[in-house]
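Hi there,

I know you've been waiting on this one. I reran it after we fixed the sequence typo, so this is the corrected version. Both the input and the resulting structure follow.
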Amino acid sequence: MKYNKVMALAAMLPVGLTAATSQAFDVVPAGEPVVTGEPSRVGAPWNHRSTFNIPGTNTDVAFGGYVKFDAHYDFDFDQGDATDPLALLNPANETDGRTTFTGKESRLNFRTHTRTDRGTVTTFVEGHFLPDAKFNLRHAYGEYLGFLAGQSWTNFMHFHGTPRSLKLGGPIGYATGRPNQLRYTHRAGPNAFSVSLEEPSFALSPIGSAGVETENRLPTLTARYQFGRTFGISALVSEFSTNEATTGVDESTTGYGFAAQLAVPMGDATTFKANATVGSGLGSYLSFVPDFVAGGRTPDAYIDANGALKSVDSHAFGVSLEHNWNSDWSSAVGTSRFSQDLPDDIAGFQSGLDRVQYSFVNLIWDVNQRLSTGIEYQHSDIKRVNGESDDASRIQASVQFHF
């Protein structure tokens, strides 16, 4: 069967280890006070960094990051330095067995916290070395009194329903992205409400759109509600258009989407997580690739046979289980699927993506709060518009040193 390899690896997990009430790493909510010489206490404990004060100022500074070594063995398709299930769309990636080593996911970050009479001003800058071994920007933003300005995670995405995985970016079909934006967040107890205006862009399919230039006249509008680390729901609306001034083509359409995530404890050591995303024009939220790449795989929009600009409908879901065998060892197993509705009456789309399913199972050892290692089996399965399909397996082993 197609998933025999998944079941085989699952059977290898250390089910004999004694489960404990302690979590491998409890997640600490952001927003804790920063005290000189103490951890910055933003995010999960393995992201905690001791801060130091700039003499004569109210500013605390923290440096951090990690070094990550990834070893991959691809059985069928080379899926790149960061597992990309959509690599199966390109026959040039086929292989009869390939080993690759990489450290490109390694990252560096720098943050400041400045205390003022009216609250704390925070800045954060981070980069990593994907995809080209050069230092590339991930985040660059500032925060003050609930306002955020700069490049950071899209307000459309969630984290609490995303499983822990060795694969960068999590499962397929989980909304992601780091646009430039203006955001405001209001917190009231466990409730958090946020709205944002985000940098607009969209991925246009190259099929039937030669010479057409895209543009966005309005920013993307998003809204999100989150209850603690249990449930969250978000929505967005975007405007897509073409540039009549340069190409003579004057078309526009609307993209929209809804996303929700859930994390439900099942006893002291196990958590059920789920994700759902539905909408139109969401293809570019699927992975971290430039719009011209996404346009050939998961386009937000296309030009139909009548020359009209149409957004692409899509939906995705994912479920996973996380289990802490004890305070040091944990596992996750899950599956997710993304489907899009490309026009089957246009010949150029016949080899395009109809749906992709991604499944994984892992075992992770948190040696201490600065070192973790693990192994993960990953299985990808795609189906094209013309009905043809491919599947591929990958084993990933990782060692991560935090500093």
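Quick highlight: The mean pLDDT is 87.

Best,
R. S.
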